[in-house]
Amino acid sequence: MSSSPLANERTPLGTAPHALAKLGVVVVAAGRGERLGAGVPKAFVRLHGRALLEFAIATATSLPHAGHLVVVVPEDRAAEALELVERVLPANSPWEATVTPGGRERHESVRFGIAALPDSVDTVLVHDAARPFASAELFERVLAEVRRTGDAVVPALAVSDTLKRVDADGVVHETVDRAPLVAVQTPQGFPREALASAHETVQLQEGGEHGAPTDDAEVVQRAGGTVRTVPGERRAHKLTTADDLTVLESILAANAAEALEGP
Ligand SMILES: Nc1ccn([C@@H]2O[C@H](COP(=O)(O)OP(=O)(O)OP(=O)(O)O)[C@@H](O)[C@H]2O)c(=O)n1
Ligand SMILES: C[C@](O)(CO)[C@H](O)COP(=O)(O)O
Known about the structure:
Layout: E1 23-28, E2 46-47, E3 50-51, H1 52-60, E4 67-73, H2 78-88, E5 96-101, H3 106-115, E6 123-128, H4 136-149, E7 152-158, E8 163-166, E9 172-176, E10 182-184, E11 188-191, H5 192-205, H6 216-222, E12 227-231, H7 243-254, H8 256-259
Parallel strand pairs: 1-4, 1-6, 4-5, 7-12
Antiparallel strand pairs: 2-3, 6-11, 7-10, 8-9
Bound molecules: cytidine-5'-triphosphate and the ligand C[C@](O)(CO)[C@H](O)COP(=O)(O)O.
The site of cytidine-5'-triphosphate has 22 residues, from α3.
InterPro entries: IspD, IspD/TarI, IspD/TarI_cytidylyltransf_bact, ISPD_synthase_CS, Nucleotide-diphossugar_trans
Catalytic activity: 2-C-methyl-D-erythritol 4-phosphate + CTP + H(+) = 4-CDP-2-C-methyl-D-erythritol + diphosphate
Family: Belongs to the IspD/TarI cytidylyltransferase family. IspD subfamily.
């Protein structure tokens, strides 16, 4: 960080001055976490004394690139998020950071995040704060594939359970072939222009036959773009319900030295 993110009021919530950033990372942390029901947004849930958002910021800004990080948070959490950014980013970091308010739906928060990136950013990784232990290697794998292909890229894991189609009463109608199915994670990577214009297109279509898109790959696909996959990883597990806390605790224990390393 070239100076404190509070030093320059470029957005309503504060920003650092920016140089020639080419990589942008948007960490979305503005969800309400209703399925978890912790009483605080998931990004601010603490594991071993640290907010989930802190882990995501630390990993994103550990990438060996000069980049610009945008953290998208609920408006009333902006000051807390700025404090986290200041704590995590070392004074000599090549990363600059902006905190900006989110929207009602995830795709709106991403759109606001993209808008807060400096013009010099040409490639964007969008990451859920709710996946705090996605590794730097995963970020690099996605980024390399975006730059190699010029397409959108998402991390994907094979589905390991047998899948059934059921009706509203829970009665099974058929077994679904799982061979062509994958579960996708974040970070998801995109050429900036493709992502920004896809979000504009989807915003105009809102209220149409499709519901709200749940990830950015879907946004790009709806706009006619190609989305590729790279191998995902178990440690990029998402906090969705209370059961996931146990999974995240075990991932943290398995990667404790690295994940709990102080700034
Ligand atoms: N309006 C929203 C909704 C979601 N997110 C972020 O998108 C990620 C994944 O979303 P999800 O798991 O659906 O989070 P929540 O919306 O918080 O969860 P819930 O649906 O249970 O309320 C999270 O890091 C969340 O903070 C966001 O920035 N803005
Ligand atoms: C973006 C995401 O993490 C990809 O799996 C996911 O779509 C988040 O939203 P969800 O509604 O919990 O699937």
